[in-house]
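Cont'd.
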Amino acid sequence: MEVLHYPETTFEKLPVTIFEDPAEGAVSVAYEIAELIRSKQEKGEQAVLGLATGSSPIGVYKELIRLHREEGLSFANVVTFNLDEYYPMQPDELQSYVHFMHEQLFNHIDILPENIHIPDGTLPVEKVKEYCLAYEQQIKACGGLDLQLLGIGRTGHIGFNEPGSSINSATRLVKLDPLTITDAAKDFIKEEYVPLRALTMGVGTIMKARQIILLAWGEGKAKILQETVEGKISDEVPASFLQQHPHVQVVVDKWAALELTRIKTPWLVGMCLWDDNLIRRAVIWLSLKMHKPILKLTDEDYKDGSLSDLLAEAGNAYALNIKVFNTIQHTITGWPGGKPNSNDTQRPERAAPALKRSLIFSPHPDDDVISMGGTLLRLVDQGHDVHVAYQTSGNLAVFDDDARRYADFALGFAEKLNVGVETMQQQHAEVVEFLKHKKLGEEDSALVQEIKALIRRGEAAAACRFCGVKEQNVHFMNMPFYETGQVKKKPLGEADIQAVVDILQEIQPHQIFAAGDLRDPHGTHRVCLDAIFAALGRLKGKEAWLDDCYLWLYRGAWQEWDVEEIEMAVPISPEELMRKRKAIFKHQSQKDSAVFPGNDKREFWQRSEDRNHATAKLYDQLGLTEYEAIEAFVRHRF
Ligand code: F6R
């Protein structure tokens, strides 16, 4: 789809550059920083950089390290000031920004230690004010910041300047917004452990920088980015103050850009080159905006909705309505494995073979049932040979106390049977001792990791039994990239891809289901999907069965496909929804409260049901049949 858009659109009040993926954006920003450092070097001057932590700048730091190692970029003339630090915080704690900066950048370059400045989270509170004044003075004494790198929080914070911060604010101690605390919980394991306060440069400090680069990656940032770039300047979104700065660049990937008007509703910005995809998006948008089913939209509605250009091209509303309505109707099927002996020209799946081998990849041990439990049950009920492949052990998401409980069980069982009691006592003591002294965020011992993996494996097996998946069709892949014992994972490796290749060759499926979380640049789901893409790439052209294999992408617990993207919509009856809920309940270690709940307070089964109800409601609003719930899929052509 090519859209003619006008970057000078009145909607955008900050210059935005959109990259295909975060790595490309990060490289371009790193080059710009390197350029600044070199030009300062030539003049015999220092380059004064304001630096950020968090996930956003990691790619930039990675490229700067590469430039240092491979292209001789020196940081000897660089002085840095970090935006912020949690308070209180000891520098040697895993979550400290001192630790982060050294691990991600400083340990790998030739910066002079005395040139590094990071707010000190160890100070007694009565010293903080004086310290903050001194921090400002130090920046001034270095001639001010040449360039400030920023991420953006979902509250719209820059640094830790939460909503309510004034444009003139200086370095100070602040309270963190509850949303920021929820987002930080992933680094602290639990929300309760996140410090409530932080030291941060002020908005005023940031605004004094001569140049500012704001980074945003991933769909999670899309909404706040749109408000920052297109909204009014307001202390409710502190990042919007950047609109008053003369030299800002906003660098984003295509997912963070999703809510910008030129991307989301390009017809509001200028002329469009209309293809089927864009027409479908526009008509669905109009139907929801006008609160009218598609088939009731009139020429007037198209004109009032800024779509007269599309109307002129199509002739009349009726032609557009019926075309889009039919396309959506054809996505609905109660036969996710294809309807045997039927005309399948307008159906999402093929009629033959009547009984298919279906392979469901599940990144964590519960994604299958959470995301497509209703469809899985249907596939089994309709007689297909359903396989489930659990890609990772998911051991990280098990509470310590559960590990301890199962260790007690194992010991009790050994004692009861009087088998291997001595060994078990030793192992049990080891587990108890380790857990007693485990520090916040510390990696589990190998034994504890093993117990946690077994817990999740048992739950997945139970859910499969409940759904009727044959025992020999349940596969545990334990992909190595995941096995770090930490939130941070290894990059995708050869062994990971080979594991996927092996299982594909073993099963030779007619259809594959995979978690299609394309929008999250960092998550485990994305890595698991990349492994599948890489494996399919290797087999393509070599394996005949692959020519006749469909790949369906489902969405994880966090989000659903946009209705205009859906290519297969599987209706779920109230009874099926209840069975799906029970299958999810088999994952007891994830119930009530999960180790990684993300920023959603609902349990997984609730999120999943809400999502499936919402899709059904959307179909209903567009004027299609009213269902209880719908699971949605997009087909990926490879
Ligand atoms: C970090 C900082 C914060 C982060 C923001 C986004 O030093 O000041 O403003 O930039 O919270 O965090 P990530 O990049 O982790 O999404």
